Amino acid sequence: MKTKYTPIEEQCIFRFPNGYGASVIRNSMSYGYNDGFYELAFIKFPDQSNLWDLVYDLDPIPDVVVGWLTMEAIESYLDQIAALEAPCPPDMNVT
After folding, report:
1. In this predicted model, what pLDDT tens digit does every residue of 21-35 receive, in sequence order?
2. Backbone Cα Rg of the chain
3. What is the pTM of this model?
4. Contact predicate 8/28, CB 8 Å
């Protein structure tokens, strides 16, 4: 987990053993910032590097980005993401 702080920005990247994770931010561009809330984006790590992509089809979680979140809501989403099955490697996808 990495945390980045600047005077107007916070970001924390969560990475789980299943290859999924989340980017949690709070800055002047995030949904709910003016009211003290956080924004969470669903991400996946395609390999062992620290590079990640946004996830647009993560079932049962409906939105790639969710704003206006409390810390309790973030913990709930993180529990759901950590419990997901690992995605199939690209060369094993069935067509």
Report:
1. 999 999 999 999 999
2. 14
3. 0.80
4. yes
